[in-house]
Amino acid sequence: MYNLYKEYLEYFDWLDNQILLRSRDRKLEKANKKYENLINEIKEMIDETKESIIKYSQLKFHEE
């Protein structure tokens, strides 16, 4: 009887670990997605800034 009890405890420990691992994996996926979105936003901002600088420098060049 003790062995069966011990096996159940081991199984429940294993099951608990599996649940924790899945939860951790989901949180990591969510964090990675947010990180990718932020990187894309930053790239867009950099591109827009480059375009603005180019337009401004072209305007300044034509004024002179």
Keywords for this entry:
single chain; 64 residues; mainly alpha; 1 helix
Question: Can you describe what's shown?
Answer:
The protein is mainly α and 64 residues long. Helix content is 97%, strand content 0%. The protein is rod-shaped and about 95 Å long. It starts with a helix and ends with a helix.
* Tally of helical segments: 1
Structural class: mainly alpha
**What's the total number of strands?**
0
Uncertain runs: none
What is the terminal-to-terminal distance? 94 Å
Helix content percent band? over 70%
- Compute the CA-based radius of gyration: 28 Å
Task: Please provide a brief summary of the model.
The chain is an all-alpha fold and 64 residues long. It is built from one helix and no strands.
Secondary structure layout:
Layout: H1 2-63
